[in-house]
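Run log, item B.
One chain of 295 residues. Sequence copied directly from the ordering sheet:
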Amino acid sequence: MNLFYLRYFVTLAHVKHYTKAAEQLCITQPSLSHAIAQMEKELGVPLFEKNGRNTMLTPFGREFLSCAEHTLSTLDDGIASLQRSARGSGLIRLGFVRPLGIEFVPHLAADFLRAYPENDIRFTFHTGITQHLLDDLAQRKVDLLFCSKPQDDLKFTAVPVQKQELVVIVPQNHPLAARSAKDGICLSDTASYPHIYFTKTSGIRSVIDDMFHRENVIPNIVYETEEDEVIAGLVAQDFGIAVVPYMDLLSKLPVRILPILSPDYERNFYLVHDGSVYMPPAVENFRNFILNRTF
């Protein structure tokens, strides 16, 4: 069934006059007559009959009109939806590690919505550890990630967008707590104490491993967990000491926060996407919006 013929049929059904309907459709009357004749031939029943100067629907035509209007309405809705998406409206599915969910990601999303008020933009927010987030990206459950740098073999595109400070935290009654927070600490000074460590699935694990390696120190790992908040809580209860990202929560716990003097390090969060997957305009606009900002 020719889509143009469907539109011709619906127009003629409402106008009820071949000449007027043809003018409205910007086609010739013979072209309209030919289209209706082809439809009737294909369907095997008459759709219109003459009633004086007007053209009226037959019972078959009235039955088919409801179907044709519904079909065209559904098609037009789909076209309009795609056109809105092409202009930048649509869904953006974000995944990020929890520390970035307090301020960084919400702030970016809110700024983006304010920058494009004319678009119908919706976000979904998913949190987790880096490895789980990367699995979600590979399975196309999310569009963009904010997390630790992915392994090179994943072949994802990763751009650093946010730096993160790492600190050593110790219980307030710990021998190292006597040190001044202004003076800081070298990781080599922590070698003899039990450490609470990130699991191997955590993106930050490789960063901390490399720091200890460059200090020629093998940390005494007594506990491992995925979440930095949990590590902070365990340190506060004297289960050990730890290297963690600085977070506001630390100031509310009974721990001493010591800046790291040595070794030098760079801990970044990355904006990650799968370059082999089509990126909808809304997602691409948000990614460009982020990369154009100065952090």
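Observations after the first pass:
- The chain has three domains: 3-86, 90-163+269-291, 166-266.
- The first helix runs from residue 3 to 15.
Flagged for discussion on Thursday.
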